[in-house]
Write a structure and sequence with these properties.
The chain is of the alpha/beta class. The protein has two domains: 233 residues, TIM Barrel, CATH 3.20.20.10; 99 residues, Lyase, Ornithine Decarboxylase, Chain A, domain 1 (Beta Barrel), CATH 2.40.37. The protein is built from eleven helices and 18 strands. It is elongated and about 80 Å long. The structure holds pyridoxal-5'-phosphate. The site of pyridoxal-5'-phosphate has 13 residues, from helix 9 and strand 9.
Length: 387
């Protein structure tokens, strides 16, 4: 195989530690559904899913049917896969035959599921998604009534695997009242549904932030994405955790590291601009290193003049605009840097570490976005477990 210009390495031990931490937080009851949409947040479904399954995960959540198909190729037949978003109606038969669970947030999909179930001769495993205040997908009052009628009339076709909802931003304290009111509304509707004899296997609403900061939302299953990869959903959730724990160190370990090499080096005279345009002016004689990673490899253009990488144990800054396939970093203070030196874009080098979050403090969302934009086609490796 020909190597790519940069490579990702997954740390198995880190994942084991993160899952153990989450289990300790939530106690023995709730099932952990590992959210692996967006190619496992850029980590790579092919590498990540078998690792997680090895550490006891037996439920995976994805956004769409193509992702579900990918996960199904990798997991044992008893492991469950759940589609939270898009599914072509032509693929519902496939989903039912493979026991893939899926969200139902409109009547059309429920009717399709009943129709497909009769053809496949197997019940559809559905999760009724309720509208509780996010105003995205989810059944409102009227459609919920219609859905319950249909389910009641088709008990052999529909297995009510779950009733769920999604919170509109539990990672930010600014949304506190909205989250509390969603929880209240969800519980009230659940009680009402259950009193009428529709009892789901799993009640669920929590993503990472709610799992960590709102214990009442854990219920029977938690849908954990970002935290299992070793990132806090936001600084606020980390602060909330640290405030109440004895140990003040970060219990989450980054699973991913991203590395490349120095492609070339040169000296730039004082007063010269670096890279396209005029965004960076060398104020003094500057030694630059070119790294063959650009926005086409997922290194966001918004990190122009802002990003940091590690070279020979030093934190050095990106200067000028990030190009499609290259970025330029200032190595003036690392005169021993040579062509071929390791460049750490995310991860550790000697005693330094760069996390995705330290790329920039512009927004918490940057974690999610940068990870999700890591390319599909990139060399991916994994470290062995410490034994
Ligand atoms: C992405 C997603 C999650 C996981 O969110 P994290 O913040 O990464 O834990 C949970 N539920 C739904 C519906 C999602 O789309």
């Amino acid at each position: 195989m020909i190597a790519s210009t940069s490579s990702l390495t997954l740390d198995q031990e880190a994942l084991r530690i993160n899952l153990e931490f989450l289990r300790k937080q939530i106690g023995p009851h709730p099932k952990i559904s590992s959210v692996v949409k967006a190619n496992a947040y850029g980590h790579g479904i092919n590498q990540f899913v078998p690792m997680a399954e090895k550490f006891g995960i037996d439920h995976f959540s994805v956004f769409s049917s193509d992702e579900a198909y990918e996960v199904c190729q990798l997991v044992s037949p008893t492991t469950q896969v759940m589609i939270m978003g898009w599914i072509y109606k032509e693929e519902i038969e496939w989903a039912i035959s493979r026991d893939v669970e899926f969200y139902v947030f409109d009547i059309q999909r429920l009717k399709e599921a009943i129709r497909a179930s009769k053809i496949v001769k197997k019940p559809a495993r559905i999760h009724l998604e309720l509208e509780t205040g996010m105003n995205r997908t989810g059944l409102g009052k009227k459609n919920l009534e219609l859905a319950l009628k249909l389910i009641d009339a088709n008990r052999d076709q529909i297995h009510l695997t779950g009733i769920c909802t999604h919170l509109a931003g539990a990672e930010s304290i600014a949304n506190y009242h909205r989250v509390r009111s969603q929880l209240k509304r969800f519980k009230r509707t659940l009680r009402n549904i259950e009193n009428r004899g529709f009892v789901p296997e799993f009640r669920h609403m929590a993503s990472s932030a709610a799992t960590l900061s709102y214990p009442a939302t854990r219920m029977d299953l938690v849908r954990v994405g970002i935290a299992q990869y070793g990132f806090w959903p936001s600084q606020e959730i980390f602060m909330d955790y640290v405030r109440t724990s004895k140990d003040k160190s970060d219990p989450l370990k980054r699973v991913l590291s991203w590395k490349s090499r120095i492609m070339s080096l040169k000296d730039v005279k004082e007063g010269e601009f670096v890279s396209y345009g005029t965004t960076y002016l060398a104020a003094s004689p500057t030694r630059i290193a070119v790294v063959p990673v650009g926005y086409a490899s997922g290194f966001s253009r918004s990190l122009s003049n802002q990003g940091r990488v590690l070279i020979r144990g030093n934190r050095v800054g990106v200067i000028g605009l990030v190009n499609m396939n290259m970025m330029i970093v200032d190595v003036t203070k690392v005169p021993e840097a040579e062509q071929g030196d390791e460049v750490v874009i995310i991860g550790k080098q000697e005693d330094m570490e760069i996390s995705v979050a330290s790329f920039s403090e512009i927004s918490n969302q940057l974690n999610y976005e940068l990870l999700a934009r890591l390319p599909q086609r990139i060399e991916r490796n994994q470290t062995n477990l410490n034994s």
